[in-house]
Amino acid sequence: MNEWMEHPAFQAGVAPLVVAFIVGFALRDTRYAWLAIVAGYATVVAQTIGFTFDPLTASRKVLLLALAAPLVGIVLDATLPGRMAVAIVAIALGATSLWVFQSVLAQRSAQEVVLMGGGVAVFVTVLVALLLRLRGDGLRTGASGVGLGLALGIAALLSASVGTFMTGIAIAAAAGAMMLVQLARREPVVPGALGALSIAVPVGLGTGATFMLAQLPWYAMPALLLVPAAVLLPSASEGGVWRRSLVVGFTALAAAALPVLAAWIAARGGLS
């Protein structure tokens, strides 16, 4: 039994899925159901690296911000934000990535700081903005979480980052659990900024960490943005819960193949 519970498939997939479903179903009639995402993420952290923040390395800064993201989302939801507030939050979180990877960038040349640091900051900003655009639609947000998590997890594995692989799969599993919760109640659960940031922050910073610290190619980052962008397509808004779940789910998975392809190309020697 212990051997089975220590298997990566259980730690990153089964356990986060079960925990997230329990949390999401228990809170299914409230927006707080989307705390299921951070619950799933915390489950894989508890089984692997643990909640230690000293010394505060880049990876631990990612963990800290990922755990804080739902709180930021709750505050943002309480203030009924307009477009300006959403833009400010997206830019602020993008800029925060410079603090997260400060120790890594300190070892780079000025040109690399601008290109690498600036590129990750822009990527995180755009990803947060796209997920916040989905905050009124639980099915689109859930499908995006599944697609983004799987894409990040598989791309990280191909890029020699086992830690981010497990994070990505855990996010995908937790988002999948929220899709199941919505199907069970036959009605979407509005995620708000709580749900959107719970997905965007760990995925965005996890992608940045894999790019900065492992072998993820830069072109995988814009490819990853295609997942929430594709889910925004108008056709995904038509039909009942089951039909829409299939449409947005298939769309997210199809788009997720592109960043995985980018990582696979890099693993085989990169673009010629």
User: Taking all residues together, what is the mean pLDDT?
Assistant: 92
| Secondary structure: number of strands | 0
Structural category is mainly alpha
> How many helix segments?
12
Shape: globular
How many discrete domains? 1
Q: Biggest sheet, open or closed, and with what strands and sense?
A: none
Q: Helix and strand string, N-terminal first? A: HHHHHHHHHHHH
Query: Which ranges are low-confidence, i.e. pLDDT below 50, for 5 or more consecutive residues?
Result: none
Q: What percentage of residues falls in helices of 4 or more residues?
A: over 70%
Which strand-content bin applies to the residues?
under 5%
- N-end to C-end Cα span: 47 Å
How large, in whole angstroms, is the Cα Rg? Answer: 17 Å
Overview features:
mainly alpha, globular, 272 residues, single chain
Question: Secondary structure elements and their pairing?
Answer:
Elements: H1 2-5, H2 8-26, H3 35-47, H4 58-78, H5 83-100, H6 102-105, H7 110-133, H8 138-158, H9 162-185, H10 192-213, H11 220-231, H12 241-267
Molecular structure report:
The chain is mainly alpha-helical. The chain contains 12 helices and no strands. The longest helix is centred in the last third of the chain and has 27 residues, at 241-267. It has one domain. The relative contact order is 0.16.
Short structural summary:
By secondary structure, the chain is mostly helical.
